[in-house]
Amino acid sequence: MTTMTEASVREFKMPDVGEGLTEAEILKWYVQPGDTVTDGQVVCEVETAKAAVELPIPYDGVVRDLHFPEGTTVDVGTAIIAVDVGGGSAAPAPAAEQPAAAEPAQEPKAAGSGRQPVLVGYGVATSSTRRRPRKGPEVPVQQASTAIQTELNGHAPAAPAVPAPAPQAAPAGTERPLAKPPVRKLAKDLGVDLTTVVPTGPDGIITREDVHAAVAAAVPAIPEPSAASAPAATQAPASYDTTRETRIPVKGVRKATAAAMVGSAFTAPHVTEFVTVDVTRTMKLVEELKADKEFAGLRVNPLLLIAKALLVAIRRNPDVNASWDEAAQEIVVKHYVNLGIAAATPRGLIVPNIKDAHAKTLPQLAESLGELVATARDGKTSPAAMQGGTVTITNVGVFGVDTGTPILNPGESAILAVGAIKLQPWVHKGKVKPRQVTTLALSFDHRLVDGELGSKVLADVAAILEQPKRLITWA
């Protein structure tokens, strides 16, 4: 086996993946010490203040060391992984650090990997690994997030009737517990140390049920007040959770969004106007376009026609598509539209935008919207996709909400909120009939958009959605 030398080791540094961002959090490692990597292979996923990004390694070689564990925030320019590019392989771990149990005969080691292929994605390295350091106080298990409580059927599970075997901590120098990446993520969210979890899966693999059992065992029982000692009005219903508070760390995309919204709310003077409109004809057009061969394979929904209506309204009122230059004390009118679509993701609210949306045909706009939504849902939106927006649409109607007063995306002049489309009684041609109705809300920066201009834009969008033929006559 070739011995590695310091001269053959290359350090890969955290790059600036977000145009000026100074740090990023390591979300997930896809490799471990001893793995062979090739130029262009993705080795980890990091989260900046704007998005989650996968990082490819620019070398061929063998991973020597991961300098930081998952969950660590690292400054740009700091080395995060060492790779031996001299053709050597990782030195074998000392005998004391080898697994006590023999490898199963049905799961041989992958050739040249030095790892047990026991999991989906990556296995367990035969070299010793470092235990993840805690960054500050550990969040108690009982302070699990609301999303995790939902996963636990909406309330903290009761303690098991039969006490589970006492968890045994892994002795020093042994391998890290076996668990698939989703299970590790669940344990991380719950604040559970996998070394204290009793595995029940095949070959000693920790399952989701094992993690949940650890949570249930860790939640302390709170004695119920007796009827004699507490008034009935103060006794919590049996369905209430025993957890009194939940603390969720604010970082990454969520932290950046919070800072941006506060800055926007207290920098730009917001004005919001509303209009309720009959969109029955627009809904009929949506159904007709779904059957049109020009839209085969594309997602056609009301948002597509709302986006097109806003683009037409901007063309008719171009001064609304602008930004405020504080340093120069100037209004900068944009002669292009980068249309932002607000998207709620597990990591927080993001607003990717469709570049040059004004120049796209309706089928092209449908394709771009579909790609934008799919990318955001998968958590793969790039930082570049969220920069340079000019106006934004936020569709609160998907949550059954009638309307709202949206806050401007920083650097933009207007944002359109679309409410739920509902069947309502409406006066149509002199008679009250059931019609498809929605409420639109347009917030704008009153420094550069006055009431007249904002009203014209909102009225144009409403007029198009009421009579979608205006998409042609006003084009």
Tell me about this structure.
By secondary structure, the protein is an alpha+beta fold. It is built from 9 helices and 23 strands. The strands form 7 sheets. Strands 13, 16, 19, 20, 21, 22 and 23 form a 7-stranded mixed β-sheet that branches. It has a 4-stranded antiparallel β-sheet with strand order 1-8-6-3, with no helix packed on it. The chain has a 4-stranded antiparallel β-sheet with strand order 5-4-2-7, with no helix packed on it. Helix 6 (302-316) crosses helix 8. The termini are far apart.
Percent in helix: 10-25%
Rg, alpha carbons: 28 Å
Shape: elongated
Give the low-confidence spans: 89-174, 220-236
Q: Helix tally?
A: 9
Beta-strand residue fraction: 15-25%
Count the E strands: 23
Structural class: alpha+beta
Largest beta sheet, briefly?
7 strands, mixed
Mean pLDDT: 77
Measure the end-to-end span.
Answer: 71 Å
Tell me briefly what this model is:
By secondary structure, the chain is α+β, with helices and mostly antiparallel strands.
Essential attributes:
475 residues; alpha+beta; seven-stranded mixed sheet; four-stranded antiparallel sheet; 9 helices; 23 strands
Helix and strand layout, with pairings?
Blueprint: E1 9-13, E2 23-29, E3 36-37, E4 42-47, E5 52-56, E6 61-66, E7 73-75, E8 79-84, E9 115-116, E10 124-125, H1 146-151, E11 178-179, H2 181-190, E12 205-206, H3 208-218, H4 252-265, E13 270-278, H5 280-290, H6 302-316, E14 322-325, E15 330-333, E16 339-341, E17 343-345, E18 348-350, E19 353-354, H7 362-377, E20 391-395, E21 414-418, E22 422-428, E23 431-445, H8 451-466, H9 470-473
Parallel strand pairs: 11-12, 16-20, 20-21
Antiparallel strand pairs: 1-8, 2-4, 2-7, 3-6, 4-5, 6-8, 9-10, 13-23, 14-15, 16-19, 17-18, 21-23, 22-23
Helix pairs in contact: 6-8
